[in-house]
Design goal:
By secondary structure, this protein is of the alpha+beta class. 55% of the residues lie in helices and 13% in strands. The chain has six helices and five strands. The strands form two sheets. It has a three-stranded antiparallel β-sheet with strand order 1-3-4. It is globular. 34% of the residues are buried.
């Protein structure tokens, strides 16, 4: 598997955080906040696979662009960045040695931590 950082998704997440579209939730909340398969399919039907891709920090170059399985490391609920999603992605990226993704997620996580301290 040739998974690499999705630069477009990274920029999208930064823009969302800068615009205030984020949730400062707890680490263990991702299982509750992560979109379901049905929500993912509905989102793709409404917005297309390209927009779906912007909500995933990883891309598997060995998968077809129109395949949902190409996009990994989700970080939000199609409206907001979730701290819990970033923490889950950061942990998984580190375990799998996807260092470019791990560093990008750490940056996003750092942006949220700064905001959390100022609230």
């Amino acid at each position: 598997m040739a998974v690499r950082l999705n630069q477009r998704a990274f920029a999208h997440a930064q823009d969302l955080i800068a615009a205030g579209a984020y949730v400062l939730d707890d680490r263990d909340a991702w299982s509750e906040h992560q979109p379901s398969t049905q929500e993912e399919n509905d989102f793709i039907a409404r917005h297309g696979i390209g927009e779906y891709a912007t909500w995933h920090l990883g891309m598997d170059d060995e998968q077809d662009e129109d395949n949902k399985g190409r996009y990994t490391f989700p970080y939000g609920d199609f409206e907001k960045v979730h701290r819990c999603g970033l923490l889950a992605a950061e942990s998984r990226a580190g375990q799998r040695k996807y260092y470019d993704i791990e560093l990008a997620v750490a940056h996003l996580h750092g942006m949220l931590e700064l905001l959390r301290r100022t609230k």
